[in-house]
Amino acid sequence: xxxxxxxxxxxxxxxxxxxxxxxxxxxxxxxxxxxxxxxxxxxxxxxxxxxxxxxxxxxxxxxxxxxxxxxxxxxxxxxxxxxxxxxxxxxxxxxxxxxxxxxxxxxxxxxxxxxxxxxxxxxxxxxxxxxxxxxxxxxxxxxxxxxxxxxxxxxxxxxxxxxxxxxxxxxxxxxxxxxxxxxxxxxxxxxxxxxxxxxxxxxxxxxxxxxxxxxxxxxxxxxxxxxxxxxxxxxxxxxxxxxxxxxxxxxxxxxxxxxxxxxxxxxxxxxxxxxxxxxxxxxxxxxxxxxxxxxxxxxxxxxxxxxxxxxxxxxxxxxxxxxxxxxxxxxxxxxxxxxxxxxxxxxxxxxxxxxxxxxxxxxxxxxxxxxxxxxxxxxxxxxxxxxxxxxxxxxxxxxxxxxxxxxxxxxxxxxxxxxxxxxxxxxxxxxxxxxxxxxxxxxxxxxxxxxxxxxxxxxxxxxxxxxxxxxxxxxxxxxxxxxxxxxxxxxxxxxxxxxxxxxxxxxxxxxxxxxxxxxxxxxxxxxxxxxxxxxxxxxxxxxxxxxxxxxxxxxxxxxxxxxxxxxxxxxxxxxxxxxxxxxxxxxxxxxxxxxxxxxxxxxxxxxxxxxxxxxxxxxxxxxxxxxxxxxxxxxxxxxxxxxxxxxxxxxxxxxxxxxxxxxxxxxxxxxxxxxxxxxxxxxxxxx
Length: 687
Fold this sequence. Notes:
The chain is α/β, with parallel strands linked by helices. It is built from 20 helices and 23 strands. It folds into four domains: 2-130, no CATH class; 151-308, ANL, N-terminal domain (Rossmann fold, 3-Layer(aba) Sandwich); 452-564, Luciferase, Domain 3 (Luciferase, domain 3, Roll); 565-681, no CATH class.
C-alpha cells in the first residue's frame, strides 16, 4: 500500500483554503494512516481562559522532517483557538462538535492540562457510543435522558407589539418579557410528536423538507423532527431574493415547506411557481398565531406548527386480538412507545352488528356486515350504494365528490366503527385486493397490510400509508433480510418473468433460534444459507419492480391433482370467503340463508339445521358461490363442485381454527371426514 505514496508531497494539491475534493481527502487520510504524514499537535491553555485552548497542528513526513507547504495546501500547519471539550485525539481531528455539548460534561478547571481536555472528549465519545447516540435525534434523546428537566431552549415573551410606518417602511416595536424555557425532556417530546405528525401529513417521495424561517426554538425542534422522520432538511435563507427561493424549492422537489407567521404571506405568494409544494407548516406568532390565511390556496394546505405536534395525540387503539398472538403484542408495545391510548374490547362487541364469533379476518367480516345492510335496502338505495362504492374504489374522483358521497352515503357506514377510524392494520392471512379497496372506500381510512410470523417476532414486511396500491404487503421492515428460494415442485422460480417468485426466507435479529425442545422441526424450518441462518416461511412470494412483497401462495395450501396440476386452496378460500352471504364455505349466515330460502319459495320458518340440509337450498348456495368465484377471477377448475353446510361455527375452542382464527386444515378434514367422503362419492371425478 505504501508504494502508492512515494512521498508525502505527492498527495499535496491546491484544493482551496477550506475544502478538499473527495479523492484528495481520501489520499490525505491514507497517507496519515500509513505514516507518510505525521500530525504533531500541541495544546496550550490560553492565558486567563478556562474553556479554550490554543491548538497548534504541524505536519511532518515519515522521517519527522516538517513539510513545507503553501497555506492553501490541504496539509497546511495552523494555529487556532478551540473549546477544550471539542479537542480530539484522533489523527484527523473533527472540530464539528459545538460548545452546546459542553453542557453534558463538566467544564475544564482553570488548571486543566491538555491531556484533561483530550480525556474529556474521549469520555464523551465513549459515552455517546455506549448510548448508540450516533445521529442528531439520538444525541437529543441521550441529552434528554441525562439532563431531563434542565433548561434547554429559551424564548423571550412578547407582551405587546406596535406597528408603524417610518421612512416609507413598515416597522414594529415590541415590549418584551422574561425568557421562558423548555426543558430537555420537553424539547424531546415536541420533536418526537412533530416527527409523528409529519408522518400523518406525508412528506412525499423526495425525502426532503424545506425550512424557510428566521432563527427560533421551533426551527431547531422542527429540523430535529424532520431528521427523526428520516427527512433531509433543506435550509433556505430568508434573505435570499424571491427567484432564488423558488429555485431552491423547485430543485429540491420538496412537498412540505416550514415557515413562520412573519414569512407566510411571502411564502404563499411564491408557491404558484412551486408546483411540488402541497403543504405549509407555520410557526405561530406569540400574539397573532398564524394570522389570516386566504381561503383559496390553490390546493396547498396550511397547518400551524402546534397542530402538527398535537396531531392524533388523542389516538385510541381498539385491542381485541389475542395478546398471546405475537402481532398483537408487538403492536401494543409499539403503540405504548408512541403515546397511544389502548382500549380493550372483544370480537363480540366490535360493531353494532357484530357476529357472535369472529370468523375470517377483520376486513372480511366488517365488509360483509356492511354489504348485508346494503342488501336489505330497497332497489334504488342498493343501486346508489353500489355506484357510490364503485366511484370511491377507483380513487380518481375529485375530493369534493368523495366528500359528497361520504355525506350522502358513507358517513352512516362509518358509524358502524364509531365514525373516527383513520387507520386499520391487517396482518395474518393475505388481504384480498377487493376487500382492501372496499374497506378504504367505505370507511375513508388508510388500510396498511403487514406480513409476519411468530418465528420472526411478527416482523417481515409492512406497507406504508403513501402507497395506495392493493394486493401487497409492503417492503421488508428495517433490519429484516428477505430472499426467495426456488420451489420446483410448485413451479415457482426466482428466474420467473416478469417478477421473481419463490418460497420466502427471512433472516435477521428478529428471527427465532428455533422451536422449544423440537430439534427435528427446527431443523426442517431453519436453514443455513451463505453463512446466514434463515427461517423458511412456507409462503410463496413475488417481489415486483418497486421492491414490495406479494404473497401469492402457500406450500401447504397447494393440492396436486391427478393430472399433475396444483390447486391453491388458500387463494380459493381468500376469494370465496368475501361473499356477502357466506361467512366461510361450510358455515352460512343464518339470516342470509333464510332470505335465500324465501326467494326459492320454500319454507324459511324451519329451524336452521333443517335449512342447511335441504338439497334445494344447498344447491342454490353452491351456485351463488360458483358465480361469485368466477367474478373474483377463479378458474372453472378452482370452483367447488360440492358443498356441505354446517351450523356450528368454527372457534378456537373447537380446535378447528387457531387463536388468531387461522384454519387448521387437517383438523377440519378429520372433523368433517364423513361429510367430505359423502360429497366425493356423489361425483365420478372427485378432483
